[in-house]
Design goal:
The complex is a heterodimer of chains A (309) and B (380). With 309 residues, chain A is an all-alpha fold. Chain A is built from twelve helices and two strands. The longest helix of chain A is centred in the N-terminal third of the chain and has 29 residues. In chain B, 42% of the residues lie in helices and 16% in strands. Chain B is globular, with a radius of gyration of 23 Å. Classes of the chains: A mainly alpha (309), B alpha/beta (380). At the A-B interface, α1, α3, α4, α11 and α12 of A face α1, β7 and α8 of B. Chain B: Keywords: Signal. Chain B: It comes from Robertmurraya kyonggiensis. Chain B: This is BMP family ABC transporter substrate-binding protein.
Chain lengths: 309, 380
């Protein structure tokens, strides 16, 4: 029982940065824009947080700064992909390359400085009597809660409101949406920027909660994992919640296996999350092989009103 | 029109990215190089000998607070001592890129320090091509006519850190996050364990491999897995302070490696081995100026000043500090040898016979854990 609680707590703290990035990615892809800039936006979010926090020591300002910086990158991606109708893959890769390099450049002066940050935790004493949940969720930091909250709100937004229907329409058939009077460009701009802000929060979480000092390239490929998890989660925010925690848990499991002194090489244990991803993807794909594909139909296709299909 | 603009924008982004990313030669040194080229004509008349041009190749950035930071401190000492401005290249990945970078440097430098294990083969290859340039490679085992190698006896301070850990641990459970199962890390963990057992025979050291030098999130995961097991002292052989920070959050004693990490966990920091390359680098450059340099494989310890113990954290009890200092003296004197038998491996088989000491080559190729270490070394 104790092991399960410990593992779940580790899964949440490792899964939260992934979850922020996955949710951001879902918002992007749902309106038909692929955003491969995740890794770069996360890094910019992290380095901005570090610099601003060292200057102000104010968590709220830092939070805003991370949002602002990532929104800026989101705006660039949106402008290039939506207004200029350029190739989304290339633009996304450029954002990642730019973010990786530029964050390293910005972070030069603050690299290695420890951040004296203490993130407030929410104690829920009324949860205490519930056996498993009480111990796991009774003492989470506010940003982990924020992440869960965002996932739930996104679910209702996407599936229970008319805006959510428009969102889906813009991603599936922009021309139809346009005819219906929905502003395709407006929806795309809004969600690409909003999604990028969530990616920036992922970087914010990494540096403020997870490992409080700036280190060049500290995301270490988590942005790419998040992109894979979007498909894994089938563009559903609640599935994303489960997937990110599952993936975080597998990540944590590897080290625990080492401690059991089982005769599995640690290199192999490190592959577990990735192997599990492939297996689950195969399983899900096989189960849904007779159903129509679930991804947004206009994914990666720039919308051009005069173009005939 | 819009398409053209789009392509242009993307190109611009790529260019910006290229400018700010990757290996950056410090412009400062480039400038002074130009200057020195202009002035060499006059300088040779007044000075008898020209000062050597020195270059350093780094695996990370000086701001990492660990490995590269210490090398960069040493570089600063060299620069100050000789009044030169050496060239540095940061973030050089181990592999083909390293060989290109080293070769470029070899064309207009006299001494090149390559400061990571993975630069060994690239350095060796370039050394063959440029026999008139001297190469110094850290922590490797290949040497050539014009290539030396050097390493610190990190196990000496690790033993002392182990003593501190053994005395501080109340439940005899000590955790250790190792980067990779390499001899360098293994002998450090062994010495650490022996140190802990010397004051606390029941102490056990649980080892987890992170399989990365530098990935704070993974290092933290590894640290947390040990903390969840209830260890009350946590040591890390890693380049980032993530593990120490994770330990501090739970009020657990923490230790790092390579450099003083007090600032990351002021309340719970103990101490850890640090590597001090400065004096050696100065010696090397001086011997080149004196034309007495010769290729050798250097393995220096406390006595030569290449390894040190970081200052104690403010909450470490005085008795612990005294015990460590006393032992340190014995090591410096040479009256105490760490890898002196009888020493048993994990299974209880004797590895070093009573009274025997381990020779340097055996230390440098160590691939077994001493008794009391809980963990496995992956088979090759």
């Amino acid at each position: 029982m104790d092991t399960a609680i410990i593992l779940m707590s580790a899964a949440i703290s490792a899964g939260t940065p992934l979850l922020f990035a996955v949710l951001g990615g879902i918002l992007n892809e749902k309106v038909g824009v692929i955003n491969l800039g995740t890794e770069g936006i996360m890094l910019i979010g992290a380095v901005t947080s570090c610099i601003v926090f060292l200057q102000t020591e104010n968590l709220f300002l830092t939070f805003l700064a991370a949002l602002l910086a990532s929104a800026g990158l989101g705006l660039i991606h949106a402008f290039v992909c939506i207004s200029l109708r350029a190739n989304q893959i290339v633009s996304g890769l450029a954002i990642t390359l730019f973010g990786t390099g530029f964050s390293a450049y910005l972070g030069k002066s603050v690299a290695g400085s420890a951040l004296p940050v203490s993130v407030p935790k929410i104690e829920l004493s009324w949860l205490e009597p519930i056996p498993f949940i009480g111990r796991v969720f009774g003492n989470l930091d506010i940003f982990s809660w924020l992440c869960i909250f965002v996932a739930i709100v996104m679910y209702f937004y996407m599936y229970k409101t008319s805006w959510g229907l428009h969102l889906k329409a813009v991603g599936d058939s922009p021309s139809t949406s346009d005819v219906m009077g929905v502003s395709v460009d407006g929806y795309r701009y809004f969600h690409v920027i909003l999604g990028s802000m969530l990616m920036g929060l992922s970087g914010f979480y990494l540096i403020m909660v997870y490992s409080p000092n700036w280190i060049e390239g500290m995301t270490a490929g988590r942005g790419w994992i998040a992109i894979a998890l979007i498909i894994f989660a089938r563009w559903n925010p609640l599935y994303a919640l489960a997937c990110a925690y599952f993936f975080g848990g597998l990540d944590a499991l590897g080290f625990r296996f080492q401690l059991l002194e089982v005769a599995i090489p640690s290199y192999f244990l490190k592959m577990i999350p990735y192997i599990a991803t492939i297996i689950v993807l195969m399983f899900v794909g096989w189960k849904n092989r007779h159903k129509p594909p679930i991804e947004p139909k206009a994914l990666g296709v720039p919308y051009f009103r005069e173009q005939r299909f | 029109m819009k398409k053209v603009l789009g392509i242009f924008m993307i190109l611009l982004l790529f260019m910006l990215a290229a400018c700010s990313q990757g290996t950056t030669k410090t412009s400062e040194s480039a400038k002074t190089e130009e200057k020195s080229e202009e002035t060499t004509g006059e300088a040779t008349e007044t000075e008898e000998k020209e000062l050597p041009k020195v270059a350093f190749v780094y695996i990370g950035v000086p701001g990492d607070g660990g490995w590269t930071y210490e090398h960069d401190q040493a570089r600063k000492l060299v620069d100050e001592t000789f009044g030169i401005t050496s060239t540095t290249v940061e973030n050089v990945p181990e592999g083909p890129d390293a060989e290109r970078v080293i070769e470029e440097l070899a064309q207009d430098h006299d001494i090149i320090f390559t400061t990571s294990f993975g630069y060994m083969d690239p350095t060796f290859n370039v050394a063959q091509k440029y026999p008139e340039v001297l190469f110094m490679h850290a922590t490797g085992y290949k040497t050539a006519e014009n290539m030396g190698t050097y390493q610190g006896r990190g196990y000496q301070p690790a033993y002392l850190a182990g003593i501190a850990a053994g005395m501080l641990s109340l439940n005899n459970k000590i955790g250790y996050v190792g980067a990779f199962p390499l001899p360098e890390v293994i002998y450090t963990i062994n010495a650490f364990t022996l140190g802990a057992q010397s004051v606390n025979p029941d102490a056990e050291v649980s080892v987890v491999w992170s399989n990365t030098w530098f990935d704070p999130t993974t290092e933290r995961q590894a640290a947390v897995s040990l903390l969840d097991q209830g260890v009350d002292v946590l040591a890390n052989y890693q380049d980032s302070p993530a593990g120490i920070q994770a330990a501090a959050e739970r009020g657990v004693w923490g230790m790092g490696n390579d450099s003083d990490m007090n600032e990351y966990a002021p309340e719970t920091y103990v101490t850890n081995p640090i590597l001090n390359w400065g004096p050696y680098y100065v010696d090397v450059v001086q011997s080149v100026i004196d034309e007495t340099w010769k290729s050798e494989a250097v393995f220096y310890g406390f006595k030569e000043g290449m390894v040190e113990l970081a200052p104690f954290g403010k909450n470490v009890p005085q008795e612990v500090q005294d015990a460590v200092e006393a032992k340190k003296k014995e090591i410096v004197d040479g009256t105490f040898d760490i890898f002196k038998g009888p020493i048993y491996d994990q299974a209880g088989n004797i590895k070093i016979n009573d009274g025997e000491t381990l020779a340097d080559p055996d230390i440098l190729s160590m691939n077994w854990f001493v008794k009391g270490v809980k963990g496995t070394i992956p088979a090759e």
